[in-house]
Amino acid sequence: MRIPRQAARVAVLDPAGAVFLFRYDNEEVGVHWAMPGGGLDPGETPHAAAAREVREETGWTDLVLSGTVLCRWEHDFTRAGVPVRQREDIFLAYGPRRDPHGDLTAAHAADKILHWRWWSPDDLVGDTQALWPPQLPEVLAGLRTSGPAVSPIDLGYVPNARA
Predict the structure, then answer these.
(1) Phi first, then psi: what are they for 126, rounded to 5°?
(2) DSSP secondary structure letters along 110-151
(3) How would you write the pLDDT of the chain (163 residues) with one tens digit per residue?
(4) Residue 59: which region, alpha, beta or left (left: phi > 0; alpha: psi -120 to 50)?
(5) Minimal CA–CA distance to 19: which of 119, 124, 142?
(6) Could you count the other beta carbons within 10 Å of the beta carbon of residue 1?
(7) Contact 29, 83 (CB under 8 A)
(8) CATH class of 3-157
(9) What gap in Å lies between CA 72 and CA 12, rounded to an integer?
């Protein structure tokens, strides 16, 4: 039995269209790359959670998140030993290309964040490393060609490649 969990993430894009990603290690799905984000606190909206999570994980306090959800998806993984089915709302923000700021060691250790990097659109398309969500290159390519959608792109439930 999987516990339902609501989460929010932020696709942070630099002026050249590169996206900021963290490299995570998870006991169920293994090493993968994902955007800053995490679970909602009680009573928190997805937008507020996304803003809080990006601040906690990057130290950046100046990002302005879009008011609408870019895309959403559901997936399974194990968090702190508990199997969850997580539904994620992904928001969009633009900012300068920079390193995370401040002492984030404890936050990264708690979330099993191993590393971070900026990925150019070409890097995303040409790489074979696991991404959350796997459709991220296509979602961001659509954003570059047609701009943000009026309503969120629903990626649905995405099973784990290792399952």
Answers:
(1) -90, -5
(2) HTTEEEEEEE-HHHHHH--S-EESTTHHHHHHHHHHH-S-SS
(3) 999 999 999 999 999 999 999 999 988 888 999 999 999 999 999 999 999 999 999 999 999 999 899 999 999 999 888 999 999 999 999 999 999 999 999 999 988 999 999 999 999 988 788 999 999 999 999 988 887 777 899 999 999 875 4
(4) left
(5) 119
(6) 4
(7) no
(8) alpha beta
(9) 16
Measured CA to CA, the distance from residue 79 to residue 105 in angstroms comes to: 19
Residue 135, phi then psi, degrees to nearest 5: -85, 10
**Which single residue is written with the structure tokens 């955007």?**
35
7 burial level (CB within 10 Å; 0-12, 13-18, 19+): buried
The structural domains of the chain, with segments of one domain joined by +, span 3-157
Q: Are 57 and 154 in contact (CB under 8 A)?
A: no
